[in-house]
Amino acid sequence: MNLQRLVTMIVCLGLTLNAAVFSHEELSVLPEKIDNILPADMMSHYLRRLAGQKFEDWKAQYEQRKTPEQIAEYQKRLRDKFIEAIGGLPERSPLNPQVTGIISRDGYRVEKITFESQPKHYVSALLFLPDGDKYEPPYPGVLVPCGHSANGKAHNEYQTMGALLALNGMAGLVFDPIDQGERSQMPSQLPRLAGTRAHTMLGIGSILLGRNTARFEIWDGMRAIDYLQSRPEVDPKRIGCTGNSGGGTQTSYLMSLDERIVAASPSCYITGFKRLLDTIGPQDAEQNIYGQLAFGMDHADYLMMQAPMPILICAATEDFFDITGVWNSFRYAKRLYTRMELPERIDLLENDAGHNYNRLQRQGVVRWMSRWLLNKDVPITEPEIKLLSDEEVQCAPGGQVMNIDGARSTYDLNRDFEKDLAGRRKKMCANKGRAELMDEVRRIAGIRKLSELPEPKITRSGTVERDGYQVKKIILTPADGIYLPALIFVPAKNTEQPTVLYINEHGKAKDVAPGGPIEAIVKAGRCVLAVDLRGTGETQQGKQGQLSGATGSDWKDVFIAYLLGRSYVGMRAEDILVCARFLQQEQKGPVELIAAGNVSIPALHAAALEPELFGSVKLTGMLSSWSNIIELGLSNNQQVNAVHGALKIYDLPDLSARIGDKLINKEPLDALGKPEQKKTEAP
Questions:
Q1: What are the DSSP E strand ranges found in 179-269?
Q2: CB hemisphere CA count around 352 (13 angstroms)
Q3: What are the b/e assignments for 510-530, b being 16+ CB within 10 Å?
Q4: Sheet (strand 614-620) strand order
Q5: How many C-beta atoms surround the C-beta of residue 566 within 10 A?
Q6: Please, which residues bridge with residue 316 across strands?
């Protein structure tokens, strides 16, 4: 072996050994399990434990609800809270309905309909009407919101339901929900942005406006009832509602809020939040109403808010919506109906199948509607239905309502609202003093004052020696069940410069390697506390299903917090405050806050609310503004930093202005994670 080759081998071996030394240097802090759970499951476990207390509160309140007066008060209170939580309802405007085609079938006809649930916001629907020779109008009208089928009302289950209603003397109005069938709200993004993914994308911006995707769906359904009642063939006092899966969600909401519905049958949706959280977890945006667990609204309440309305729950034994939860909610509702001395008005159909709207379900639903809307209780047998093709059911030009001249999407409606709010925010910031505005920020984001935050429990778990400094491992426990793994980098010679609190969206491990940015700060003589905020680094949740690509891997945990009326921004800002106070106590003097990525938003909140704690604030790669999410419509991994109703009071630049010269905001990003395009003034 020649000398040059030997030298090369020795150099390579040295590099390999150095890499091995770092790669095996144990800088993780948490054990394999803590409290007998994996660190990645910490937030899920913590939030479900908080939810568990709300479930106990719910049961206690239910048992106190006995008299007609108590039941009526509960129903009104919950309906009011529900409407408030989704951001209220729009004002009624002209429907401007259009019949764009009629198709005749044996025993019924199908009309293709469009109407405007809000000005220029179009709904596409099929109206199934009975044969006038066999059944005399006016007929009962039954609303059928579709589930999460890509082709919406064209799906065979929903077409068949509409036809079966018409064949049994009832009018069926089957309509497309937003982002399904003919109602893509952003057609340029098809097929990637549709169904549940699209609902949740819309939901992120809606949350910031104090709204919910459900608001759009509920209002579409209510206006669809307006349309049914406007038809001379329909009896306006005999309105029913049934839907499956996502349509079961809409049915549950509509039957609990709209008093015009006199019989209902939600299919394959009703379960209970306890079983939901213990099994598949929260689903897409419209199925999570802000703070509903906190103010006491569970699935059973959808069955009881309009009691004693006749309701048939349709369920499937093998559904992913847990059947045990279905029976538990049914039991609570049945007991309430019994207290009202009308137990026969609620029932449950369980069929031995998976998630479905199959023939047995449909026959049961139509028999239920016949019983309560036609006063005729007879067995229903579904015949062979000649289905329409996807092309035949098209109501709008090119099969998309957004092709109609002047059509406005849900994103457009949100942009309109944000423009209005921007003007209000400007006046509010000009008229309110700092303390008053910061109190509003605290309230909305859910951030306590530093003096109200308890001292964390500190667990020290070892020291690692490095060239010129030490790395001390600690765990901060700011709340029962929350463990923040952290590393304190202590230089051999402390120059008494400001200490640094260092956080990164990818966790502390991102920048701890020798030669990295943290080492550079430490070797300049400064102490650094690098910490994983809850849900980052060692406690980062893995992928949680199909929405994670658009919303972040921890979207289900974020939705649990949302159901509890809490924000990740608020919880993480409190983590930052607790850590900064600890660092200040350990190393006297001001704290420099350095944050990178989407944890910059909670860092901004912490610094704006407790400015005396921080000597300087350096943020890198932060979202430029929440309003940019509304402007673009699309966003990437912004759900975790959406604060319900924040844009009614403030935007991120408003907080930056309150920090002033102490803030350095580097490389701001737009809602898609791209460098912000600076706007230039016109010459």
A1: 234-244, 261-267
A2: 0
A3: bbbeeeebbbebbbeebbbbb
A4: 457-466, 469-479, 482-491, 528-531, 499-504, 591-596, 614-620, 663-666
A5: 19
A6: 351
Encode pLDDT of 6-43 as tens digits. Answer: 333 433 434 333 433 444 357 899 999 999 999 999 99
pLDDT of residue 678: 65
CA nearest 266: which of 312, 227, 229, 307?
A: 312
Q: Quick one: 89-406 is in which CATH superfamily?
A: Alpha/Beta hydrolase fold, catalytic domain (3.40.50.1820)
- Give 432-666's CATH code, choosing from 3.40.190.10, 3.40.50.1820, 3.40.50.450, 3.40.50.720: 3.40.50.1820
**Angle at 149 (CA atoms; ends 402, 184), nearest 5 degrees:** 15
Q: Are 570 and 449 in contact (CB under 8 A)?
A: no
Percent of residues, the chain, with pLDDT higher than 70: 95
Q: Is 156 helix (H, G, I), strand (E, B) or coil?
A: helix
CB 134 within 8 A of CB 166: no
Question: CA separation (Å) from 35 to 50, 250, 481, 487?
Answer: 16, 39, 8, 21
| Delimiting residues of CATH 3.40.50.1820 domain(s) in the chain | 89-406, 432-666
User: Strand pairing partners for 466?
Assistant: 469
| Burial of 18 per CB tally in 10 Å (0-12, 13-18, 19+) | exposed
How far is it, in rounded angstroms, from Cα 77 to Cα 82? 9
Query: Rounded to an integer, what distance in angstroms lies between the CA atom of residue 487 and that of residue 532?
Result: 9
- Is there a contact between 274 and 176 (Cβ–Cβ < 8 Å)? no
Amino acid in the structure at residue 481: G
DSSP 184: -
For 255-297, the pLDDT digits (tens) are: 999 999 999 999 999 999 999 999 999 999 999 999 999 999 9
- Nearest residue to 205 via CA among 216, 219, 220: 216
Beta carbons of 478 and 456 less than 8 angstroms apart: yes
Q: For the chain, give the number of residues.
A: 683
pLDDT in tens, 504-523: 999 999 999 898 999 999 99
The pair of structure tokens assigned to 163 is 């036809």
d(CA 560, CA 571): 13
Identify the CA nearest to 569 among candidates 608, 529, 598: 598
Q: Which helix (H) or strand (E) holds 214?
A: helix 213-230
